[in-house]
Amino acid sequence: MVHRDEGGNISTMALITDTMPVGLIIRKQPGVTRWVKWIWQPVGLIPGAGDAEWRELRRDGDTVEYHAATLNLTIYSSDTDAYRATLNSRTPSLYVVMSDAADPVNGCPWTPKLITVNAFEGQGYNESGEGLVELVPMPVPMIAWLRDFIEKHHVEEEFIKRRRDKKRIDLVEDGKGDIRIRQTSDVFRAPRNSSGRVN
């Protein structure tokens, strides 16, 4: 991260991190079609949770909620702009990324892979189309934790306008296209060999 001291000199700040264990709640409920028997969806987060592996939390008929896993959420001082974008959204949320389960537990086809509060990273996973990516609303204690971290470590980066050089680039033509084309008027024409065929 670039930082300017009081004298305006550029210095490199050490990367500061903070980590919180976060429990992931996954809900299993009956599917709505005969082709999808069960729907599995991340629905909640438990800040500061202990270790767990598919511990049942609540059951209502066929709908079951599990504390499926506890993952470490690490935040970085270099990413505070992304965290601000997350907090400024209508519902501040974490991205939960799940990959295909090689060995399904309780029949769940997904394995929790990571959680991130970085909006840009989450969108990247979402656009990749791999696995399951869900937004889960952030609990109030996590919002406060993230806000405090941003206030302590965010540094506004000064916008530096790039100066253009004075060199004129419209005076010299470095080439007219394919050297096999003799006509200068149609540089995008396909070149022909001596027999008249297009190469």
TrEMBL record:
InterPro entries: DUF3305. This is Putative molybdopterin-guanine dinucleotide biosynthesis protein A. It comes from Donghicola eburneus.
